[in-house]
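Below is a filled-in request sheet from our internal design queue. Each sheet records the structural input a requester submitted and the sequence that came back. We keep these sheets so that new team members can see what a complete request looks like end to end.

REQUESTER: design group, bay 2
PRIORITY: normal
MODE: inverse folding
CHAIN LENGTH: 402
BACKBONE (tokenized):
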């Protein structure tokens, strides 16, 4: 894949940068600016080279039409703070405001376009509608830099189609993410453990199957663990359960035994009668979950077991919290995993926090990005890469220049 250096002298050139600025908001307040901070170095590098930088991104899932709740205006303000220079904001994506803002941006200046998903062409299934929107975006620029790792697994207009229309390059963030993923998939240092959590096992079935041929240990927590426990014939009460995946999971457990991959499941669970921080909670053995209660975190013995099975690892990939970490009574398991990774990172192990809720969790629980080997900006993209899927946004960058 070509890099920014391959684009030559960019002074005075209009460079369209596809960033991932899909940050969580509480009203208009950004609650985690990790993706903004991760995107800033590429934008700043281009600006310092004298390019006229046009940043485009999405936020949330609006229905293909403008929605003030999903405006990128707060992101423009925070991006300016992080960059240490003003960021102009266009009130549309390819309309009069965008064209005027691009025309006005000086060499070394930065402008952020409004939410790409306010235009239905961004995520259209039809190639024609998508290509039409991409052509409008491409008309704003002389070159394209792909730096939104969180969307490279999507064949969307600003990710895939624009790259076909302009001289293009890979941004620093995407290059760094791909480098880490290659280290996870090409002769990783061992022992190699994968920690999976989060709500749904169905979201991770493909990657579980792939990892059974790569990882030495698979540690499972979060809401998805109850499908694993059910596959062992255990009672899971009112816990989150994907009953239609029980047989599939049972097959994976058998396959893991046959391949010598260690599957580590919780031995105790924090349960409550309701999904609420105020609900009374207690710790029970994993094989004694009451029928009228739900599991909301791994228990303290499980946390110790998981830490023990991570202590000698030289490579760890973690995707998905161990419980409902947003509520203090159910955050201890996730915090214990994070602390274990911090400790082995200090010994030189490669630890990768796989984006999404995992990244938000470690920051919310007081850990710094530098405590880990790498915090990904794209949980979904990371999982699909590890599963061995073709990522359209990366594939198009490898096809040669426009």
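RETURNED SEQUENCE:
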């Amino acid at each position: 894949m070509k890099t920014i250096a391959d684009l030559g002298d960019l002074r005075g050139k209009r460079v369209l940068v596809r960033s991932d600025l899909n940050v969580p908001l509480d009203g208009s307040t950004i609650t985690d600016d990790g993706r903004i901070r991760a995107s800033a170095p590429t934008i700043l590098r281009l600006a310092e080279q004298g390019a006229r930088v046009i940043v485009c991104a999405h936020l949330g899932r609006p229905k293909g039409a403008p929605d003030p709740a999903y405006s990128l205006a707060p992101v423009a303000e925070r991006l300016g703070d992080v960059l240490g220079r003003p960021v102009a904001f266009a009130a549309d994506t390819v309309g009069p405001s965008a064209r005027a803002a691009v025309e006005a941006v000086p060499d070394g200046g930065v402008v952020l376009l409004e939410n790409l998903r306010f235009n239905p062409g961004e995520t259209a299934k039809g190639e024609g509608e998508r290509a039409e929107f991409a052509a409008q975006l491409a008309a704003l620029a002389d070159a394209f830099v792909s730096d939104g790792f969180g969307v490279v697994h999507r064949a969307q207009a600003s990710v895939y189609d624009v790259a076909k229309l302009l001289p293009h390059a890979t941004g620093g963030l995407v290059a760094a993410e791909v480098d880490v993923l290659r280290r996870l998939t090409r002769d990783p240092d061992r022992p190699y453990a994968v920690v999976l959590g989060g709500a749904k096992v169905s979201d991770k079935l493909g990657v579980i199957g792939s990892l059974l041929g790569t990882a030495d240990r698979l540690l499972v927590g979060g809401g998805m663990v109850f499908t694993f426990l059910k596959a062992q014939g255990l009672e899971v009460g009112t816990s989150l359960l994907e009953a239609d995946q029980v047989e599939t999971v049972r097959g994976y457990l058998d396959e893991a035994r046959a391949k010598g991959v260690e599957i580590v499941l919780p031995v105790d669970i924090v349960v409550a009668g309701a999904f609420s921080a105020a609900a009374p909670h207690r710790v029970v053995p994993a094989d004694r979950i009451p029928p009228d209660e739900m599991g909301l975190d791994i228990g303290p013995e499980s946390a110790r077991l998981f830490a023990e099975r991570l202590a000698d690892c030289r490579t760890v990939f973690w995707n998905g919290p161990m419980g409902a970490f947003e509520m203090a009574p159910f955050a201890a398991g996730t915090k214990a995993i994070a602390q274990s990774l911090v400790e082995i990172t200090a010994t030189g192990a490669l630890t990768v926090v796989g984006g999404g809720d995992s990244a938000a969790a470690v920051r919310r629980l007081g850990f710094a990005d530098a405590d880990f080997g790498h915090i990904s900006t794209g949980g979904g993209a990371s999982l699909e890469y590890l599963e061995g899927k073709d990522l359209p946004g990366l594939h198009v960058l490898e096809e040669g220049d426009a």
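SHEET NOTES:
- DSSP finds 14 helices and 17 strands in the chain.
- The two ends are 13 Å apart (CA to CA).
FILED BY: M.R.
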